[in-house]
Amino acid sequence: KQKVEEKYTVANGYTHDTTVVYGDTDSVMIKFGYSEKDAPEEEENKERWMVNKSMELALEAADHVNTFFIKPIKLEFEKVYYPYLLMNKKRYAALLWTNPDKFDKMDCKGIETVRRDNCALVRTVIDTCLKTILMKRDTKEAAEYVKGVIKDLLMNKIDISELIVTKALHKTIDEAKNPTAHVILAQKMKERDPNTAPVLGDRVPYVFVKGVKGAKSYEKAEDPLFVLENNLPIDVNHYLEQQLTNPIVRLFEPIMDKPQQLLSGEHTRQISVATPTTGGLMKFVKSTLTCLGCRTPLKEGQSSVCDHCKDKEADICRKSIVEVNSKQAHFSSLWTQCQRCQGSLHQEVLCTSRDCPIFYRRRKAHKDLIDAQKTLERFSLGW
C-alpha cells in the first residue's frame, strides 16, 4: 500500500494520486484514476480506454512492488473491477474485466446473491438491482424496481416459492439446546404425519406466517404445502423487515441519500392479507355465499349473484369462464414443464421434490384452478 501510494502521485507525473481502496490477506485493490482530457469522447470507447489504462498501470505497479519482496513472494495483476460497488469489508460487487474489449462477468462477494440463508426473493431483488446499477448504470430504475417488489410483497402477489427459506436438519428438538425455526417445524410436521416429515440430514423448507402478537420468528415458521392447502396468511412484514431491509439499505447506501425511503411511502400503503380456511377463529365462523358481483351476502336459493346484479350475471359468468381458462392454461404449462423434467409427456407427474420452486407453483396453480372451477359451478349453466 505504502509503496504504490508513494510512487503513483501527481507529483511524480501521474494524472491522479493513487489510492488503495481495499485490501485483505491475499489481494489489494487500487484506484488509479484517469485524465478526462486524454479519454475518447465516445462512451463505449472511453470505457475500454479506462479499463486498458488501468490494466497497464496495474501491471506496472505489480512489477514495482515485486522489487521490494523477497522471492518467491510475488504480486500479480489479476483483474479490473469497473464499475466497483464496495459496501463494506468483504462485501462488494463489480463487473470483472480481464481484457478491455468486454467484461467477463458480474462478480459478487459476501452479498445476498451468493448466500443461502435468505429466501429466493432477496437473491432475486439484489441480483436484479446489481445488474441494473452495474450494467445499465441506472440507479433510478433499480430503486423503482425495489419499490415495485415491496408493493407486490405487501399485496400478497409474490409466489410462495420465492419466500421459502431452507435449512439442514442436524438435531432433533430434544437434542437442540436452543431449538430454531426448522427444528421446531420438523417436530410439528412429524406430529401431523410421520411418513412425510423431514428426517435428520434433510433440508427443511419453511415460510413465515402471521402469528399472534409478540410471537417469536421460530413460532411463525410453517410448511409451505400446509400454508397453500389452508390458505394461511404470509407474514409479509417479517420478510420486509427481517429479510429485505438490511440488504437493500446496504446496497443503496453508497449510491443514494436516505436509502430507507425505499422501504416506506405510497407503495407500502396497500396491504392484502389472505383469509385462512381452517384453524383459529375460522372454527367458529359459519361460511355464507356472497354475490360474485358486489360481494353482498346472498339470500336462500341464490347461488351466484344477488337481485341487484342479476342483469350483469352473463358478464360475470363470462369473466369466470375466462378466469378458469387462464388458470387451466397456467396449470397445464407447469404440469408439462414437470413432465418434460420427468422425461415423459404421457405419464402422471410423480415428482414431490420440495427443492424445486416449480413444485410449489404447480400446487398453488392447481389449488387456484379448483377454486376458480368451484366459482364457475355456482352459475346455473344450461349447456
Describe this structure in words.
This protein is of the alpha+beta class. Among the domains are: 2-109, Palm domain of DNA polymerase (Alpha-Beta Complex); 164-233, Topoisomerase I, Chain A, domain 4 (Orthogonal Bundle), CATH 1.10.132; 288-377, no CATH class. It is 39% helix and 11% strand. It has helices spanning 2-7, 43-66, 120-134, 139-154, 181-192, 224-230, 236-252, 313-342, 357-377, and strands spanning 19-23, 28-31, 80-88, 91-97, 105-109, 165-168, 203-208, 221-222. The strands form 3 sheets. Strands 3-4-5 form a 3-stranded antiparallel beta sheet. Strand 4 (91-97) and strand 5 (105-109) form a beta hairpin. Helix 4 (139-154) runs antiparallel to helix 7 (236-252) and helix 6 runs parallel beside helix 9. The longest helix has 30 residues, at 313-342. The model has no long low-confidence stretch (mean pLDDT 87).
Percent of residues in helices comes to 25-40%
CA distance, first residue to last residue: 83 Å
Number of helices: 9
Categorize the overall geometry: elongated
- Element order: H for helix, E for strand: HEEHEEEHHEHEEHHHH
Biggest sheet, spatial arrangement of strands: 3-4-5
Count the E strands: 8
What Rg do the Cα atoms give?
28 Å
Report the biggest beta sheet as strand number plus sense, adding barrel if it closes.
3 strands, antiparallel
- What is the CATH architecture term of the domain at 2-109? Alpha-Beta Complex
| Class by alpha and beta content | alpha+beta
Mean pLDDT: 87
Please indicate the percent range of residues in DSSP E strands (runs of 2 or more). Answer: 5-15%
In the CATH scheme, the class of the domain at 2-109 would be Alpha Beta
CATH fold description of the domain at 2-109: Palm domain of DNA polymerase
